[in-house]
Structures are given as structure tokens and as C-alpha cells.
């Protein structure tokens, strides 16, 4: 079955499959002037995207359709959009939409006489000025559709603020992404924020826009018949043969520069209760082909991009992982030796024969691992039964032996957590698990997750301000910790992991490994720690050199006086630069020590020492955590069954129906 929920939970929503049941439409805007010959313009405000005339306008009456795609950011605590001179990674959603739109343009979906002109903006690395976009559309003429793309829950308030001036100018707006899809997938009715935005005249898209669905939206945008809601949640598209994501180099240049992102698959077989992905993208693996992958690599390589973040939430459960890795290995061995990849995997990936070995050969150098917690009781409460703490060490050591830098996500605020247990757990991790980067998140009932659905059903308080749903803010109450205590525990966790002493240990571990990259490990540590310490944003939304624009403040907040805004912005910037330099010098000193240590190559500690026969008896991981002893007992029971020959051949997969239903890898 394609589709996560068989239509059950969204049955109260308008069913508008394939756009056939149009529930009304929004007003049409008039066609004005146009210019023939389609173009992609990443900077509409500069007017450079106009073909064959460097900005000259055509006569009124020619058909022109602007599709403006904006990936919005979200507001910081002071109400300013979080944006940077350079953001970390180009947006994959923007790249997907851009490719689909480019394909629609090539196919002349609005007829041979209508030029489609594409404009892409990523607000995380440039200011978006609706007034300028509106002026340019007016100047160039034609009709337009404003698409706010990949809108997460935390970006929803910003998206609506961005939409307002366009609506006021008579330009239709459509919002798509996880907030809308997650709400449509899991809630019996649309939440108030989406309903209010609908009342403003904004159209919504739930689901994925491959298989010609974007065409429908573009046609409706052109005809002025945009629907209030496009609901494709019950019909997940296949990705085979769909245009692979691509963004022009100028976008990549506004990020760290040589890294791009691609999705090779969607869907995950597991059932974690805090996860939105399974309810939006389904539990069945859908994937792109090895030919698509090669195409993406070649196209990007031609633009100088050699490193990629593969955005699949769990690449280990991409049914075609091996074919995809094999193609990458071939490309690396023949034409592109410098290819490098970052992937996201689960904690059982090392059980898949050859997975880590082939990943390393394919150029995987960084791995995000959904560790989430080291207390089995917490993992069970979150339906994350597949995470077995008894496997963590083996899995992490294997990645390390294959030269990958490991990042683990760690969620704070599960039922068994207290401030004391969190601090205890971080110390256990530091001592016993060979992890390079640990990133913390508040347990957050994200719209689209089972947790959110359950809290909504029970009427339990959740912060109504979606802007805070960035996993870096507390948005619910905890059963044991007070609000302040939970927030303190979150800050304490970051501070406890990134002490100079522990950074020294991480770097010593890396420097002792023959495939280790201590310099790169340090720059990654600095990235994560500096964002938390000085920028107040989660590292996953970080960037280089924070931009703030006085007039772009959140609509509910007052525009500040320039005499207050600019001196404070200047002072903040100076103190941050000073702070950055201080920490950089300190940690660089630590790196130099690690590299020069006389015992560099013989250094060892509990975390990186090869598995010991008695480690299950000795390590705190199994005896001090909540549910650790029981997890150990389960492991021993499973081992005993396996030895007696009655167990499935893959240790980690026992008692896991979700995984049993998963692709047989
Ligand atoms: C990659 C990724 C990132 C990257 C983003 C950069 C990049 N390279 O793309 C990084 C690591 C930076 C990141 C950061 C964060 N992320 Co993130 N991220 C993802 C991930 C894994 C993939 C996104 C993606 O490319 N999906 C594939 C695209 C094609 O799907 P899509 O976005 O849904 O778009 C399709 C449809 O929605 C539709 N569509 C979308 N927009 C529009 C617009 C129109 C007009 C139309 C017609 C259709 C349409 O068509 C698209 C193609 O089918 C998703 C999970 C997931 N599986 O999607 C999480 C996810 C989107 N992230 C999430 C979160 C919470 C965050 C962070 C807040 C986490 C944090 N604490 O830092 C930050 C926010 C930073 C930011 N400014 O974006 C959540 C959002 C949940 C929610 N309800 O809001 C997700 C779903 C993961 C999760 N934990 O549940 N993320
Ligand atoms: S393993 Fe990751 S992607 Fe899969 S259900 Fe759990 S949290 Fe979601």
C-alpha cells in the first residue's frame, strides 16, 4: 500500500484528489504583459532573469506566468527572521520544486504561447522583499503564483506574514510542506492557524507534488482558479522517473559553497511516536533510481559541487541502498574520486550486511544517527523499540573504523527524564560511546506526529505559537520536570557535552584513528557549539554571519526605533565575533595538543576500546539507565534463542513488526 494511513485520519478533510473536487476558488488576477522564452531567475529583484533583453519589457498582451518559489525561514525570539550571509545547506525542497517547475515549463503545460518564468528564493540566506517582487511582476507584466515551499510548522507564522503583501497586491499564494501535510494527515480538522490563513485567501497543498500535481496548481494559478486545499495525502507518488532535485549554482554559492542536498528516497518503516515523516511520507520505501542519482551527480559536478547531503530520513531503509551505493562506488572509482556524502541512518544499520562497508566506499563521510536516548524505558515509551542500547557501541565503533564522523540526535524530555538523569546520561555517553557530535532537541509534539495527535485529542496544553516548534524551544509541559527545570536541563546538556575536556577526548579519539579527521571533527564541533552558545539557534538552522533587517520583524511585534535596533545589532555582532575567536583559539589549542601528543596513536579509552567480554557487566550504560537492566536481559534472551536456532537470523530485528514488514535488506 502506498500511503501512510489508508485515508482514515483525514476523512473529515475535504477530499480533492487530483484536483477534481474543487472546493471553490480564489479570484483571478489579470494577465498583463509578458516575455517569451522561459527563464529561471534566482534574483527577480535585479531583473537579470529576463531573457534576450536584459530586462526589457514586452508588449502588453503577451502571455507570461511567474512562479515565485520562496523557502521561508522562521523568527528568532526577538521576532527577526533567522537568516545568514551563508546558510549551511541549500534547501532540498526548493530544489525539488524548482526541478518539477522547470519540467512543467519545458513541457509547456500552460500551452505553447505562455512563457513560464521561475524565481527561487531561500530566505535563510537572503532577504525576501515582497514589495520588490510585486513591483517587478507589475513591471514585467503577466500573471503570477507565489509558492511558499517546504513550510515547516515553525515557519508557518513567517510564511503567513510573507503572504500578506502578495495577497494585498492581488497575487495568489499557495503554501506547501510539512506543517500543512502533517496537520491534514493526523488531525480531524484543520487547526486554527491554517483556517485563519485560509480565510486570508491562501491556498494550501498537502502531500507531494510529483506525478504532475504541481502542473495542476500551476494551471489553476494561471487560470485564477486556485483551490483552498489540494489534498494528496492518500496518494503518495512514486519517485522513479521524476525530475531529480536541482538548484542553480548561484543558490549553492549562498551556502557553505560546495555542498548540495538530494533526496534519494522517502518513507521509513518504523513507528516512532514523535516522528512526522511516517505520517506524511509513509512507511513504505519510495526511491529514485541509480540513473537519477548519476544524473544528479553529473549535473552538480559540472557546477563544481562534489559533496551531498542525502536527505532521506533513514537511508538504511531505502530499499535500493545497495544499488545506489554501487553506482556511487563506480563513479568514485572511475570519474569522480572526490565525491563525498552525508547520510541519515538508524541504529541497526550495522546489522545490514555490507551497509557500512559500501557506504564508506561510496564516500559517506558523515552520518546522522537517530540515537534519541540511552534509557530503554524512554525508547519504548516513544515506540522506538528498534533502538537497542546494547547495539550502540558496536554500531558507532564500526562507523568510526570506516572513517565517518558520527552525529547523534538526542531528545530530552521523555517520561523517565529528570534534570539529574539527563546530566547523568550525558556523562555516560561521554565516557562509553564513541560519538563525535551530540545534538540535543526538546521532545516536541510536531504537527504530523502521533504525539501531537494524542495531545490534541486529550486537550493537553501545547504552545499555540508554531514559531516555537523548532525543537529548540519547550512547547509542552513535562510530567516530572517543571517548565524551568526542563529548559535548564536542555541548556545543561549542551554545556555538559561540549566542555573543553570532552572536546579534547573527542579529538584524541579521532587523532588516534587511522581514518580519523580531527581537523574536520573540530570544525563541526565548533559549528554546533558556537550556534548554541552565541546565536541562540539550533545548529541545524545555523549559518555564517547573522543578518537582521529592522523592518522584517514579526507582524505582531513593533518595528524598533533605528536608534535602538542598529546599536544593539552592532554590539551583538561584535561580542559574537569576539566570543567566536575566544572559543576557536581555545579549541584549536586543544586540537594541536591532540595532534602533538606523544601517545597520539596509542591513545585509548572505554568508548573506543574494542568490545570486552565483560562489558555488559561493567558499563554504566546498561546498569545506571532506566530500563538498562531489562534491555540487557532481553538481549541475553534473544542471544540464547538464537544459539538454540529458533530466532530470526538478524539479531536486531526480533519483535519488530515494522521492520519485518520493511524491505528485506
Ligand atoms: C533535509 C531536512 C533538513 C535540512 C534542510 C536543508 C536541506 N538540505 O534541505 C536541515 C538539516 C537544515 C533541516 C533543519 C531543520 N529541520 Co528539517 N528536515 C529535512 C528533511 C529530512 C528532508 C526535507 C526534504 O527535502 N524533504 C523532501 C521534500 C521534497 O519534501 P517536502 O519538503 O515535504 O516537499 C514536498 C511537498 O511538501 C510539496 N510541497 C512543498 N512545498 C510546496 C509548495 C507548493 C506551492 C506546492 C504546490 C507543493 C509543495 O512538494 C514537495 C515535493 O513533493 C525533513 C523530513 C522529510 N522527510 O521531509 C526534515 C523536516 C522537514 N525538518 C524538520 C525540522 C523540525 C527541522 C528543524 C526545525 C530542526 C532543528 N531543530 O533544527 C530545522 C529547521 C531549519 C530550517 N531553517 O529549515 C521537521 C518539520 C516538522 C514540522 N511539522 O514542522 C521535518 C519534517 C523532520 C521531522 N523531525 O519531523 N532539515
Ligand atoms: S526511525 Fe527516524 S524516520 Fe523512522 S520513524 Fe523513527 S524517527 Fe521517524
Describe the protein in words.
The chain has helices at residues 92-106, 130-140, 156-168, 178-186, 192-200, 213-223, 249-253, 277-280, 290-301, 321-334, 355-362, 376-381, 389-401, 419-432, 450-458, 483-497, 500-511, 518-535, 562-596, 615-618, 620-623, 628-643, 657-660, and strands spanning 39-41, 63-71, 83-87, 114-122, 143-148, 173-176, 203-206, 229-231, 259-262, 265-266, 286-287, 307-310, 340-345, 364-372, 405-412, 437-442, 543-547. It is 39% helix and 13% strand. By secondary structure, the chain is an alpha/beta fold. It has 2 domains: 17-231, Response regulator (Rossmann fold, 3-Layer(aba) Sandwich), CATH 3.40.50.2300; 258-602, pyruvate-formate lyase- activating enzyme, CATH 3.80.30. β5, α3 and β6 form a beta-alpha-beta unit. Mean pLDDT is 88; it is low at 1-61 and 647-665. A 7-stranded parallel beta sheet has the order 1-4-2-5-6-7-8, sandwiched between helices. A 6-stranded parallel beta sheet has the order 9-12-13-14-15-16. α10 packs parallel to α11 (355-362), α14 (419-432) runs parallel beside α16 (483-497) and α18 (518-535) runs antiparallel to α19. It contains 23 helices and 17 strands. Bound molecules: cobalamin and iron/sulfur cluster. Residues 268, 270, 272, 275, 277-278, 313-314, 346, 370 line the site of iron/sulfur cluster.
Amino acid at each position: 500500500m502506498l500511503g501512510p494511513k489508508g485515508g482514515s485520519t483525514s476523512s473529515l478533510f475535504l477530499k480533492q484528489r487530483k484536483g477534481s473536487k474543487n472546493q471553490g476558488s480564489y479570484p483571478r488576477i489579470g494577465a498583463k504583459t509578458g516575455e517569451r522564452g522561459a527563464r529561471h531567475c534566482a534574483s527577480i529583484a535585479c531583473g537579470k532573469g529576463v531573457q534576450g533583453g536584459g530586462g526589457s519589457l514586452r508588449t502588453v498582451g503577451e502571455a507570461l506566468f511567474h512562479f515565485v518559489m520562496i523557502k521561508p525561514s522562521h523568527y528568532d525570539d526577538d521576532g527577526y527572521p533567522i537568516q545568514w550571509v551563508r546558510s549551511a545547506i541549500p534547501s532540498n525542497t526548493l530544489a525539488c520544486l524548482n526541478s518539477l517547475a522547470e519540467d512543467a515549463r519545458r513541457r509547456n503545460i500552460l500551452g505553447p504561447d505562455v512563457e513560464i518564468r521561475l524565481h527561487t528564493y531561500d530566505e535563510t540566506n537572503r532577504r525576501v522583499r515582497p514589495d520588490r517582487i510585486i513591483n517587478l511582476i507589475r513591471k514585467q507584466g503577466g500573471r503570477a503564483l507565489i509558492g511558499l515551499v517546504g513550510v515547516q510548522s515553525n515557519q508557518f507564522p513567517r510564511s503567513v506574514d510573507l503572504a500578506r503583501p502578495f495577497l494585498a497586491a492581488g497575487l495568489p499564494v499557495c503554501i506547501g510542506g510539512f506543517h500543512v501535510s502533517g496537520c491534514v494527515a493526523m488531525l480531524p480538522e484543520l487547526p486554527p492557524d491554517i483556517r485563519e490563513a485560509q480565510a486570508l485567501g491562501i491556498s494550501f497543498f498537502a502531500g507531494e507534488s510529483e506525478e504532475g500535481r504541481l502542473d495542476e496548481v500551476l494551471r489553476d494559478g494561471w487560470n485564477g482558479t486556485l483551490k483552498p486545499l489540494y489534498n494528496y495525502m492518500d496518494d503518495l507518488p512514486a519517485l522513479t522517473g521524476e525530475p531529480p532535485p536541482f538548484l542553480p549554482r548561484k543558490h549553492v554559492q549562498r551556502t557553505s559553497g560546495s555542498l548540495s542536498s538530494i533526496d534519494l528516497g522517502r518513507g521509513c518503516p518504523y513507528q516512532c511516536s514523535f516522528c512526522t515523516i511516517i505520517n506524511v511520507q509513509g512507511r513504505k520505501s519510495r526511491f529514485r533510481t541509480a540513473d537519477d542519482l548519476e544524473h544528479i551527480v553529473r549535473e552538480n559536478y559540472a557546477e563544481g559541487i562534489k559533496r551531498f547531503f542525502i536527505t532521506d530520513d533513514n537511508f538504511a531503509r531505502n530499499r535500493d541502498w545497495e544499488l545506489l551505493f554501487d553506482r556511487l562506488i563506480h563513479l568514485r572509482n572511475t570519474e569522480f574520486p572526490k565525491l563525498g556524502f552525508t547520510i541519515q541512518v538508524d541504529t541497526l544499520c550495522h546489522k545490514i550486511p555490507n551497509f557500512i562497508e559500501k557506504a564508506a566506499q561510496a564516500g559517506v563521510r558523515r552520518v546522522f544517527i537517530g540515537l534519541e536516548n540511552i534509557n530503554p524505558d524512554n525508547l519504548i515509551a516513544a515506540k522506538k523499540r528498534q533502538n537497542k542500547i546494547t547495539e550502540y557501541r558496536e554500531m558507532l565503533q564500526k562507523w568510526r573504523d570506516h572513517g565517518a564522523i558520527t552525529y547523534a540526535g538526542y531528545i530530552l524530555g521523555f517520561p523517565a527524564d529528570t534534570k539529574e538523569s539527563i546530566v547523568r546520561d550525558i556523562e555516560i555517553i561521554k565516557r562509553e560511546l564513541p560519538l563525535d557530535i551530540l545534538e540535543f532537541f526538546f521532545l516536541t509534539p510536531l504537527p504530523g506526529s502521533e504525539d501531537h495527535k494524542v495531545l490534541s485529542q486529550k486537550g493537553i496544553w501545547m504552545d499555540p505559537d508554531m514559531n516555537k516548534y523548532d525543537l529548540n524551544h519547550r512547547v509542552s509541559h513535562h510530567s516530572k520536570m517543571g517548565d524551568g527545570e526542563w529548559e535548564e536541563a536542555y541548556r545543561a546538556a549542551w554545556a555538559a557535552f561540549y566542555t573543553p575536556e570532552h572536546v579534547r577526548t573527542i579529538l584524541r579519539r579521532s587523532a588516534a584513528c587511522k581514518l580519523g579527521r580531527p581537523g574536520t571533527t573540530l570544525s563541526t564541533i565548533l559549528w554546533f557549539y558556537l550556534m548554541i552558545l552565541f546565536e541562540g539557534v539550533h545548529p541545524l538552522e545555523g549559518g555564517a554571519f547573522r543578518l537582521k533587517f529592522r523592518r522584517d520583524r514579526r507582524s505582531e511585534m513593533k518595528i524598533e526605533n533605528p536608534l535602538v535596533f542598529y546599536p544593539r545589532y552592532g554590539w551583538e555582532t561584535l561580542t559574537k565575533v569576539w566570543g567566536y575567536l575566544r572559543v576557536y583559539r581555545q579549541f584549536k589549542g586543544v586540537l594541536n595538543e591532540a595532534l602533538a601528543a606523544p601517545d597520539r596513536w596509542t591513545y585509548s579509552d572505554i568508548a573506543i576500546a574494542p568490545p570486552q567480554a565483560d562489558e555488559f557487566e561493567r558499563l554504566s550504560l546498561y546498569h545506571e539507565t532506566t530500563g538498562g537492566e531489562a534491555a540487557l536481559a532481553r538481549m541475553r534472551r534473544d542471544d540464547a534463542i538464537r544459539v538454540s536456532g529458533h530466532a530470526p537470523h538478524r539479531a536486531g530485528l526480533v519483535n519488530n513488526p515494522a521492520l519485518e514488514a520493511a524491505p528485506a535488506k
